[in-house]
Structure formats: C-alpha cells, structure tokens
Amino acid sequence: MTRAILLAAITLILSLKVSAIDLNSFFNYKYEKEIYVVKKEFGIKELIIPFYFNKANTSFELDQVRRIRPGMIRKITYSYADNPCKLSQKELNRKRITLLSNAFARRLEQYAPEISFEICIQTKAEARRQLFTGFIISFELPNQNLGKILDRELNHDSKTNHPKNFKPIFQIDTLIAYGYHLFKYEIHARSEFKIAVNKLKKYSYWKNQLIVTDVTGSMYPYTKQILLWLRLNYEKYSTQNYVFFNDGDGKKTKKYIGKTGGIYYCKNSVGFAGILNTAAKAMNNSTGNTELVENDLEAIEKGCEKFSQSKNIVLIADNNAPPRDTALLDNIKKPVHVILCGVRNNHTIRTAYLNLAYKTKGSIHTMEEDLLFLTQYNEGRTFTFMGNNYIVRNGKLERYEKT
C-alpha cells in the first residue's frame, strides 16, 4: 500500500510540473499579412493542422503529430484571419493551442525555448472565411548522405541549388474540405542562398579568416554556394582556414557543453579537394541528428585553438537553430562576424547570435542589413535592427517593445 501511495504521489508531482508550463505564452511574436504564404525550404518538412473557421475543432488526425520529434521542430506558426471580436479570438486561440499541446502529449514544452513560435494574423477581410486557420509545423529532416550529394553536384552540376532527390513535403490535401483557398508557394530566390558568399566578398578586408560553418541538413544550399564560390576563387596561399560542425555526429547520448563534438578542421593549404572532402565528411557523419540546437560556440572555440593565428572568425549559421552552448561565450576573445542564413522579413534574429557578435566586438549580417559592433554600447542604449527594437540590459542585448 505504501509503495502504491508513493507512486501516486510521484505521478501527481510530475503532472503538476508539466501542466505548470503554458504553451500559450510562447506564441508572443505576431505579425500581419494579407494572406499566409508558405515558402519551400530545403531539408524542411511542413505539417499542416487546419481548423474550421471560428471553431476550435479539427478533423485532422492529431495522432500524426506524435511521429514528429519535438527536438527537430524549428518553427510553429499559428495563422488565423483578423477577428473584430478580440475576446472571442483570444479564447479560440487558447483552446487551439491547448489542443496542439495535448496532441504532442505535452512533449513540446521541454523544447519550447528553442522553437520559434509565431502568430500570423491575416488581414484580407473580404475573404476572411477562406483564409487559412490553423498550425504550420516546420521541422528539420535528418541528413541523408548530403556529403555525397555535395561532392557529386560540385563536380558535375553547378546549375541547381537543390539536390534532385530531396524535395520538401507539404501536406495540404485536407484544406479544401475546410473551405479554405489552397496555400501559395514561394520558392527561395537563388540569391538568398548566396548570402554567405555576398558577405564574404563585401567584407574581404577581414584578414586571417577562420570560416566556421554549420553543415546540418537545412544549411546544405548555403554550404554548397560557399564551396561553389571557393572552387572558382581558390587561392592556395591564402591564410583562410575552415571549421565544419554538425552538433555531435548524430550521437544519441547526452551532449555536454564544450564536448559535443562533430567538429572537422582543415587548412586552406590542403587544396579545394581537401576542403570539399572535409565538409562532405562532416555532413555524412551528422546523419541521425535529431536536435534543433547546435554547438556553434564549441566549434568556434576549438577552431581558435586549432588555428591560433586567425584574427577574424566568420560564423555561417542558421538563424532558426540557436546555439546550445552560449555558456562558452566568455572563452571567445576574437571578433566573430555572424552571417545568418534563413532570416526572412517576418523572422526575428536569435538574440544568442546578436550577443555573440556584440560581446566579441564583431558583427552580424543578414540579406537585408549589416550591424557592426565596433565598440560596446552603454547600459540602456537602444537601437533597431531588422525591424525589431533592442536594448542593452545588464551588459546583454535584449528585445523590447516600445510603449
């Protein structure tokens, strides 16, 4: 009897701990758009959960979401048409978000701080009933021999930005039954994948560069563009060196800060073929990686130890995948120039990357804007970057809303 009571008490405590987390609070970033448009992204699968207009129920088989590992989810967008009755909409939102949480058997909450949650309010009033209402869950697909594909394409095909045997999957077959217009697709412009190349050209005065690159699945098109450019502009006697990282070679065991691994190094002197082989090896060995966060700072720190003569660190990172190891920031003593991939007009910049650039007196770069931190800002200093407001608070950059 005592054992049964003890087990019941433990179960109750655990359930209280889980239920104390309110997933509604994570949907705090909102933006408006006439209609919701989906972009095709390499290596990203999108699952659509539609709701009936002005109702909190769905015919979607919610058991399907349990097949998604929460650690692989990059973004969850909740989309609905602008509703004149704000109180009614607020209650609908609460019920739908709670339904989503329950569909995941409350497994989402553990990973919620790393996932990007957003709300898109659609403003095309005359078609309100036909504007999509529901959740769009974007999650990363594990690498599948991307290194081999990279090698094949760089050696045989420089015309396409997408491997032919990798296509995004978008589940929209049930939308017609809900009375909604089908979604529109937007394809990434090829120039978007050239962000790293364009910034490396623009800031060619960064001397003794150490280029540190995330080579996990969704970064494939950007990595390919860098290597295509390097193949055409390779200089044997350049002081540039390289680090490719994949957050632990897909290991299933616990990852420790500073000891995650999956980091591959090469000198420029090994030639372009050697650089390509190193990148391909890092990609191939990341198969099975099932977490969104990455070991960016560990890769920088280890790279600086390996190539101590480097003066400027260029981190080519995925804005949608935050670093797991910000605790290592104080160990990095050289300027870090962060080139962020995957930044869209309606996406916020991860403050972890902003602070990495800020603390090291480096810089941060997106397709649209560049921000150089030549000096440390005074406490309370405010500025705007990519449409968002930031403030220096307790020596760190934080987002804030103007009142």
The SSE string, one letter per element, is HEEEEHEEHEHHEHEEHHEEHEEEEE
What is the oligomeric state here?
single chain
**Contiguous helical run count:** 9
CATH architecture of the largest domain: 3-Layer(aba) Sandwich
Radius of gyration: 22 Å
Helicity, in percent?
Answer: 25-40%
> How do the strands of the widest beta sheet line up side by side?
10-9-8-11-12-13-14
> Care to count the β-strands?
17
Report on this model:
There is one protein chain. It is built from nine helices and 17 strands. It is α/β, with parallel strands linked by helices and 403 residues long. It has two domains: 20-187, 60s Ribosomal Protein L30, Chain: A (2-Layer Sandwich), CATH 3.30.1330.170; 190-399, Rossmann fold.
List keywords for this structure.
403 residues, alpha/beta, 60s Ribosomal Protein L30, Chain: A, Rossmann fold, 2 domains, 9 helices, globular
Summarize the structure.
By secondary structure, this protein is of the alpha/beta class. The chain is 27% helix and 23% strand. The chain folds into 2 domains: 20-187, 60s Ribosomal Protein L30, Chain: A (2-Layer Sandwich), CATH 3.30.1330.170; 190-399, Rossmann fold (3-Layer(aba) Sandwich), CATH 3.40.50.
